[in-house]
Amino acid sequence: MPEYKHPASEQDFEQNFASIKPLMNATEAYYESSRCLFCYDAPCIKACPTEIDIPLFIRQINGNNPLGAAQTIYQSNHFGHACGKVCPTEVLCEGACVYNHQNVKPIEIGRLQSFATQKAINSNKKMFGLKPNNGKKVAIIGAGPAGISCACELRMNGFDVTIYEAKAQPSGLTVYGVAPYKITNQEVLEEMAYLQNQFGFTILYNHPIATKQDLQNLEQQFDSIFLGIGLGETSQIGILGEDLDNCFGAVEFIEQLRMEHHQVQVPQNVVVLGGGNTAMDAASECARMGSENVILAYRREKEAMGAYDFEYELAKTAGVKGLFNAQPIEIVGENGCAIGVKFVQTTTQNGQLKTIENSEFVVPCNWVIKATGQSKRVQFLQMIDGLELDSKKRIVINPNTYQTTNPRYFAAGDAVNGGKEVVNAVAEGRKAANAIVNCNL
Amino acid sequence: MANLFTNFAGIKSPNPFWLASAPPTNSGYQVMKAFDTGWGGAVWKTMGVPVVNVSSRYGGVNYRNNRLIGLNNIELITDRPLADNLREIEEVKKRFPDHAIIASLMVETREEWHQIVRDVENAGADGIELNFGCPHGMCERGMGSAVGQEPRVLKTIVEWVKEVAKVPVIVKLTPNISDITRPAIAAREGGADAISLINTIQSIVGVDIDNFVAYPIVDGKSTNGGYCGPAVKPIAMNMLKNCAQHPNVNLPLSGIGGIENWRDAVEFILLGAGNVQVCTAVMHYGFGIIREMVAGLSQYMDEKGFETINDFKGKALPNVLHWEDLNLKYKVVASINKDKCIGCQLCYTACEDGAHQAIGVLHNGDRVPYIKEENCVGCNLCSLVCPVEECITMERRDDATEVLSWKERTLANDIPTTFNDPRGGGVHHPVYLPNEAFETPKPVHYKA
Ligand SMILES: Cc1cc2nc3c(=O)[nH]c(=O)nc-3n(C[C@H](O)[C@H](O)[C@H](O)COP(=O)(O)OP(=O)(O)OC[C@H]3O[C@@H](n4cnc5c(N)ncnc54)[C@H](O)[C@@H]3O)c2cc1C
Ligand SMILES: Cc1cc2nc3c(=O)[nH]c(=O)nc-3n(C[C@H](O)[C@H](O)[C@H](O)COP(=O)(O)O)c2cc1C
Ligand code: SF4
Ligand code: SF4
Ligand code: SF4
User: Fold this and answer.
1) What would be the CATH architecture of the domain defined by A137-232+375-437?
2) ipTM
3) DSSP characters for B39-68?
4) B360 Cβ under 8 Å from any chain A Cβ
């Protein structure tokens, strides 16, 4: 188990957060692409939410045509580079590769994808033939994967696109949320700059759409509006002590880590609450920042965790310890500061989670990180006339047209699917764009 | 225990593995090292009037991540003075008296041939190989393959050599000819003691598509070269078989062309080679490959109960027939082992697009294809593309009672003779209608 020391320099930080899918060099890409069988009706394509023609782009890499490969990739997925690095490929394309059935290492599709797209980004050659302007204007709220993917596709089809983004940088959670050992800020932003250059949409940063008036302005200026707003801040658990100092949400912690890791000083003992991928990331990140004792506490048994197995494995190799069947009932504080978490033990009987009487115990710690899910942006959404949300507060859409119950508004990404992966938001954003193209608004 | 000792046309060596005449046998230093590593013999880099070479000299053919499945060269014979070569031959022979040194020679006039044959014999060469094969540079000067392609000239030169030679004379043939047995027979008529084949095949291995020039590039220009390495093995083996089966050749044959491991050597021997020679594999991996070759050959012989090379030399020859003698009643069909199949569907697309539409796929998520036996002609293609060992096997479907060859059918006057003859083989074979091509479901990369 590696012991990470607090990174004292930029070099230390890079070492502690070294990429788990480093960029291939040309030789490695050539060798790896040589292994692809060029399967018929390839299962890897079907496992990719954006349905990239994987055997084709791998063959293009093998034929020394990385730009052609990148074109194949970008035709289906505008976050081709980021996806190659951040996708959970183990459960998507690589998990479907036929080599798994032969107990042979599957093709490293993600890394090949990043290899080819990196060449395109570096060359910055104009590769996409945009249709002439059709005079139609679309406003996009949110420059996340859903919004930008939608923008690229609309620009391909001759629409004028303006993106309104609350934050200072594009790509949404790709740069603000994904773990730094998957992708660096620079890598994300280079691809975003490349896309903007290729497709020529406008992004207005630090431009939250916050009021009813803002929305009405958009409705007047644009033919249609696309909502790619993602999810909000970490939700409250609803237990005592949550508002103590040193108890905060995972998404907020990670955002600070990504934006200003020099400012982040992690303490010795951290408890992370939750069993999803975000919990794994937050725990890993604390360990890599130098916390000696990171406990990942989940209220059910290990097998019930929502996180992918490989994400939990990754956290464990960073030194994180799991604590299962432990339900938090109070954040214990002293002088307004969290000093521990009080848990009660649980068990599952006939699928029902039960607490065990008199089994309370306290785990002392200096920080409590809640990775218990992101809230929906309900307040904002309620300002849009006639916009329906489902029982889980997800935006209701027509699955064929991505149109919301207000016909001027379309939506995709986390705000619709409740929170999946970058690749899902990209796929949906693109389909929504095509629906906008075909809907004659 | 297998005994690898060989006596090839009177030339003795501790094993059947010789280095072919080429850069690995350019100097005493190299041959000394090779013998020390375990090579049984060496055919010295062709000697004659020293040449001047160009740079660069080689071009390679890679297949995906495998380098040098073929190599092409525009090098000529030795560029070193004869005296140096002779002195080094003598030195190596002194140190390794039981190993074979064969002097490869290429000169022009009768006098030169007489002189050089005597010189190399005096230096201690155990045999002589006449290089009638070099397909570039030398042939334009009336030597090498210019001789090899002209049986009458070849015969005359062999006769000149035999006038003085006391050691066995091997004639090395060029494959750049339509019927390899013609120069082989000419060699025999001239008195040759053995034949070696093949030399390199005329080739262009590639073109620099940015600068519009073929490889290898010499100051922006190129020329055709000689092709060798694993890619030429099938061509070499066919020529070997032709010589081995021809009653008028009837000489010991030294097999050359793409040999790089023990298995290649066994295949050449089964097709009639009395020993083998290796060049490209050594240029690629060095002399050390001999260890694998010797160990593998011994093990194979022990397993099969062969004591000497002669015990299995030519053992596959009786089973190589003319096409017309093959049994038309023999019928195999492909069979897929569901448990081994990984679902790549390469067999499907190969048979569907490239053969006889005898494999089907389900569209219900089960990726294991199925064989439509009535369409299967037993061509093997699917089993060749399948990436899983022994997943697709060819199963016999005739009852093994009938034998009928094309020759027999011809004699019985039962062969198709007119354009729409109902006796044509494909007459009852199911074929889809052209328009059905549009109805077959196709995945993304079939869509333009
Ligand atoms: C901690 C964490 C780690 C993750 N790791 C991975 C991973 O490794 N791999 C992976 O594939 N996925 C990962 N994900 C999921 C992935 O990041 C999301 O699924 C994806 O970013 C969703 O894209 P989106 O465009 O729907 O929303 P977002 O990425 O959330 O983008 C929404 C954008 O809209 C902006 N916005 C919101 N409201 C407004 C407004 N009113 N006005 C203007 N702008 C607004 C936001 O500022 C933001 O930029 C992770 C998520 C989290 C939280
Ligand atoms: C660079 C090079 C030079 C060669 N020079 C000679 C030569 O001088 N004399 C000769 O008889 N054959 C020569 N050959 C042919 C080889 O001896 C051999 O016949 C041929 O390469 C096929 O064997 P391989 O596939 O093992 O390389 C040369 C081959 C190469 C690659
Ligand atoms: S986008 Fe993700 S799932 Fe699709 S091919 Fe790329 S890495 Fe695989
Ligand atoms: S399944 Fe694997 S081998 Fe087949 S095409 Fe996809 S990446 Fe290549
Ligand atoms: S080629 Fe082999 S492994 Fe692939 S689908 Fe056919 S039988 Fe299965």
Assistant:
1) 3-Layer(bba) Sandwich (3.50)
2) 0.88
3) --EEEEEEESS-----S--EEEEEETTEEE
4) no
